[in-house]
Amino acid sequence: MEAKSNDYFIDYSDQLPSYEHFYENVMRKNIACMFGPQLTEQWTCRKEWTIDGQSIDFDHLVNKYATLPVPVYDCSEKHFNSNPRTEMLFSQYADYWQQQQQQQVIDANRILYLKDWHLAQDSNCGDFYKIPTYFESDYLNEYCTAKSIADFKFTYMGPKGSTTPLHVDVFGSFSWSANVIGTKRWLMIPDHCVETLKQLIGVNNLPHDLYTLPNYEQIIAKVNGFEIIQKAGQVLFVPSGYMHQVENIEHTISINHNWFNACNLDRVYSNLLNALKDVQNEMSDLKNTDEWNETCDRILTIHFGMNRSYFMDQIRHITTNRLLRQSNHFRYKHDIECLAKIYTKILSNHQFQNKNHEDWKNCESLKSLNKLL
Ligand SMILES: O=C(O)CCC(=O)C(=O)O
Ligand SMILES: [Fe+2]
């Protein structure tokens, strides 16, 4: 079932596309694509974290990162739609992993996966890789970095057999994933087929692993599911709203970012509004209280990961950046139009009519967007 190019996936392993081609034919169309290892060839982590690209250089990694605390998930146990999470020192995780490697057979009752590690941020040093130009227009991480809040730039390390359960990425963001070493098997369900999948198996019955369903072949075919094998050095672009599950079929280290830009900002905006409606329905008892808006935004942050103020502040930040400094760069050429459209939508949406938002509306950069439309 492994995909070569299909309606939802383009394989650029042999030849890199131009930025414009990627923008128009992949990001705007919201389909997946794979880039070849030439994109990561110069990354220092591909050299320094491995021994000739063949095995993981644990000595080097432990030397550098031993005392950093890392988030670790036990893939052999379920915790709602994820796995239980603990924290340990990187040196402890490296010990576990090396032991597993020496045994040759991985203990299936305890498969530990180091995930969502903000390594660049935690170590104050992100020079072990370079973000490919294709992914440089990134409102989310540009904002997080400027505000010194947790970013969405992660390092993943997992033994053969470690898995990420079926999910859709946070906010409806894009993600990209680059293998430093090892191989991943992805199963992807296109965004517009996710509703059908939920109807077929029941919204509350989505398994961690679609392959555990007795009739998985028919189901996957019905929802246009496809597999992608991602090898060392390759970089996968994951579109907005696609459901996916991932298995490391070898010992694997990867760099993964979540982000959004002019192509999917609208999606993030409507996901925010849908999540807000859910919260408002849940909290309807408090509707006539003074704290209504603040309470809903607080709960929205817990459920969705951001709220109205956070979103509006991001729009203000990116708009100011683009207008003051960067609007001429080719990567940003679609941004002003996109930001202007979102600004107009927010202004006319009653969900954003809050007196706390007056200063936002009066921000000079945002107001000048109107003139550019
Ligand atoms: O590599 C993994 O285990 C999961 C990655 C993922 O879900 C993503 O990059 O969106
Ligand atoms: Fe994901």
UniProtKB/TrEMBL annotation:
<dbReference type="GO" id="GO:0005634">
    <property type="term" value="C:nucleus"/>
</dbReference>
<dbReference type="InterPro" id="IPR003347">
    <property type="entry name" value="JmjC_dom"/>
</dbReference>
<dbReference type="GO" id="GO:0043565">
    <property type="term" value="F:sequence-specific DNA binding"/>
</dbReference>
<dbReference type="InterPro" id="IPR050910">
    <property type="entry name" value="JMJD6_ArgDemeth/LysHydrox"/>
</dbReference>
<dbReference type="GO" id="GO:0016706">
    <property type="term" value="F:2-oxoglutarate-dependent dioxygenase activity"/>
</dbReference>
<comment type="similarity">
    <text>Belongs to the JMJD6 family.</text>
</comment>
<feature type="domain" description="JmjC">
    <location>
        <begin position="120"/>
        <end position="276"/>
    </location>
</feature>
<dbReference type="GO" id="GO:0005737">
    <property type="term" value="C:cytoplasm"/>
</dbReference>
<dbReference type="Pfam" id="PF02373">
    <property type="entry name" value="JmjC"/>
</dbReference>
<dbReference type="GO" id="GO:0045905">
    <property type="term" value="P:positive regulation of translational termination"/>
</dbReference>
<protein>
    <recommendedName>
        <fullName>Jumonji domain-containing protein 4</fullName>
    </recommendedName>
</protein>
